[in-house]
Amino acid sequence: MQAALEVGQITGVAPVLAALGLSRATFYRWRRGDDVTPRPRPRPDRALDAGERAVVLSTLNSPRFVDLAPAQVVAELLEEDQYLCSTRTMYRILAEAEEVRERRNQRRHPEYVRPELVATAPNEAWSWDIERHEAP
């Protein structure tokens, strides 16, 4: 930034910053001395507390809902006149618990080794020509 300031007095700031890949707004904030660290976002008043989040997570991991997507869980709970939180909040809670993935049991396929033909002497490995030849 200091080099951009020194060279910028001669040629102008815009070409120097363009060469460095910086925006002019960043340069002028730096020169002004503004604090560029972001402030923490305040917690909303209606945010779920830790106990409510634990209830939502235990509901999602219960045997009844373990194979369902959060949208399906919300729909089934609404049919029973029960509302825990929105679908998006369920996804946020699952992401914090590092459980955002396919919720159904998945079959694991083994890794197969690709066969490799190795010939150490003549006539040990044969192949064929798959190119199509036209008759004359």
Task: Describe the model.
The model has no long low-confidence stretch (mean pLDDT 84). The relative contact order is 0.07. The protein has helices at residues 2-11, 13-20, 24-32, 50-60, 70-79, 87-96. It is flat. Among the domains are: 2-32, no CATH class; 50-96, no CATH class. With 136 residues, the protein is mainly α. Helix content is 43%, strand content 0%. The longest helix is centred in the middle third of the chain and has 11 residues, at 50-60. The chain has six helices and no strands.
Termini separation (Å)? 73 Å
Number of helices: 6
Q: Poorly predicted ranges (pLDDT <50, ≥5 residues)?
A: none
The Rg value, from CA coordinates, equals 31 Å
Estimate the mean pLDDT confidence: 84
Offer a concise description of the structure.
This protein has six helices and no strands. It has 136 residues and is mostly helical.
Keywords:
mainly alpha, 6 helices
Task: Give the topology.
Layout (H helix, E strand, L loop, with lengths): L1 H10 L1 H8 L3 H9 L17 H11 L9 H10 L7 H10 L40
Helix pairs in contact: 1-2, 5-6
